[in-house]
Here is the input.
Amino acid sequence: MSNIRKVVLAYSGGLDTSVAVRWIAEKYDCEIICYCADVGQDEDLEAARQKALAIGAQKAVVSDLRLPFVRDYVFPALRAGALYESEYLLGTALARPCIAHGLMDVARAEGADAIAHGATGKGNDQVRFELAAYHFMPSVHVIAPWREWEFQGRGQLIEYTKTHGIDIEATAEKPYSVDRNLLHASYEGGVLEDPWHAPERDMFQRTRDPRDAPDEPREVEIAFEHGNPVAVDGQALDPVALLATLNRIGGEHGVGRVDMVENRFVGIKSRGVYETPGGTLLHLARRGVESLTVDREALHLRDDLMPRYARMVYNGFWHAPEREALQALVDEVTRHVTGAARLRLYKGSATLVGRKAENALYRADIATFDEDDSYDHTDAAGFIRLNALRLRVRSER
Here is the structure.
């Protein structure tokens, strides 16, 4: 422990990392640098920086990672159509390697001996942070307080903050944890650990209750170029502004809530509640444009591989060669995804009602049920007989 002189801590300003500042400083007798990454969590990070200093950090750094988060993590996963276990849009899983990248940049710049994080020993984030850290600095020393300290639960952490005068939001009565970024808000722990217990009405922060959503539907058009969203309702927007705009529109109409029991990488089933309004709209719109512009077998191949891609991201293997290889394939498949989709939002639902693309593979003159000169119906007989051959042989056996 004596050789650790300086530690960079991934700091959120929440309960776990606030306790970690004081605990690491006392246990390792070292300098603490807190690193706060702005990934669109809509929090006062300057206040978090000041709080870190007040708790005992010698330095606190804040960096704006919103653009790289959306451009370099959210959009690649969108091109892959990535959903973990068919529901989770990977909001936290995508943010962690982005934050870790910024964390390791600071660790190198400050000449730190170690990095630290506030992830628990039961969760996925410990894996995500540390795999990314080892990617950028293979010899880095990692301090994970939840795997080392004497505290057995968040109730004891809350008591620690009271005795040490650390100001935090969590209470023993409402201790569930909240994670926010530009893609989503997530909730877990506390009262949510009972999978039969419905989320409280006032818990949600990004989406309006569908019962309170506007009585009139809203249509929104999303344009794509080469697989990436570029405009909303005809207005070109940079990635951050685009996702923020769709979050506002989707949230107003109660779109994007997910309540699921998922399988963590460490083997534990966990209940999580998520709000991903903008991401939900992007996935639905992307699929609409893909249906026009991507070859059938190429699209099916991407869809076959999507669950593996999603598991890699969920489990923390963003920087693994297999994820990078799949990303190259995905990007090749989706390079022709240029066009627009129109969605109708109404009281928690989003429905695809229109799609268009100049380079579409869809051709009305071939698809039509009216008279045409492009398709010979008699060709289908031989096509069917050839595909039935193995089935006929099997049945005659």
